[in-house]
Amino acid sequence: MTTEARKTVFYRSEMLPPKPPPPATTGVLGWMRKNLFSDWKNTLLTLLGLYIIWFIASTLIQFAVLDAVWEGQDRNACLSQNGAEVGACWAFVKARFNQFMDGFFPTSEEWRYLLVYAVGIVLVVPMLIPPAPYKGLNALLLFGAYPVLAYFLLYGAPSLGLPIVETSKWGGLLLTLVIAVTGIVVSLPLGILFALGRRSELPVIRFLSIVFIEFWRGVPLITVLFVSSVTLPLFLPEGVTIDKVVRPLVGVALFSAAYMAEVVRGGLQAIPKGQYEAAQALGLTYWQMMWLIILPQALKMVIPGIVNTFIGLFKDTSLVSIIGLFDLLGIVQSALADPKWATPVTAPTAYLFLALTYWIFCFGMSRYSIFMEHYLHTGHKR
Predict the structure, then answer these.
(1) For labelling, which of 148, 271, 308, 370 has a CA lying 20 to 30 Å from the CA of 360?
(2) What is the CATH number of domain 190-375?
């Protein structure tokens, strides 16, 4: 038999299963090799970055946790003893925690602002969950009934058995949230109206909107607060006064509305002209076109800008401390003047507490913004 005849003929009847990729190109190791150690420059930068992270994290953990003082009645607990290093003086924060939360709110009436917090959370959480039912009723309670309830609970109503608590006693996180939430709730609809006004075909409306936006954007917020708190009362008729907390509330809301207007205007300009023409072809009125067609698309596109403005507004509330209001920053700074807790580590601990508090709120808003972008399929990447 010849060699050719002895050869076996093999026909493949099915495809072989694919083999897994090399471990070095997939998973965590593959990602690290591609993004962190792809060449000597990236490797050097990665190692340098890891060293910086380790140095900062280890120092912070050593100060805030390992060497921290958690219990104590006065400064003696946070002073170095026998040459030993002392870390964060959390005993100071613990002793002043209630004051940091509500300022000088009477202790016997603390249940009132706690009830405001609880009702607010109950109403806000379903509003932030897109699939939650009864959105209309929820919005009516949150933006209609809740502000009235919060006002009477915080300020008081003698006819209802609630003693008056002057706004001068409000402070801490309570005052910060009052200013921030009021500014956020008021600035968004105002910003939308002024953005539409700036694009209006009516010259008077467009001119007034431009003047409002450019005026407030051209003035520093600190000036707005000084004018609202110090200068404005000089122009009021004799006997007419405006509450000390209401003045910065109005100033912050108007200031933020001007920036919000430009964010929304950017979204309106990004909508193709065909969307406007299609809405007009359907016979929709101007407000129907804006409410049903244009604004839903525009607002969805500028979610990052809107939330960025909200975060900036929340942090800018700390400026009210310069006009004598004891917000979270102001109340902490006033507590640092107490000689009972005067130590080298008291101030760093207090400012670390402030940083963590502001970061928690701002980070929460940022993550919710990312969630809404993914939920609405805006096409933005993390």
Answers:
(1) 148
(2) 1.10.3720.10
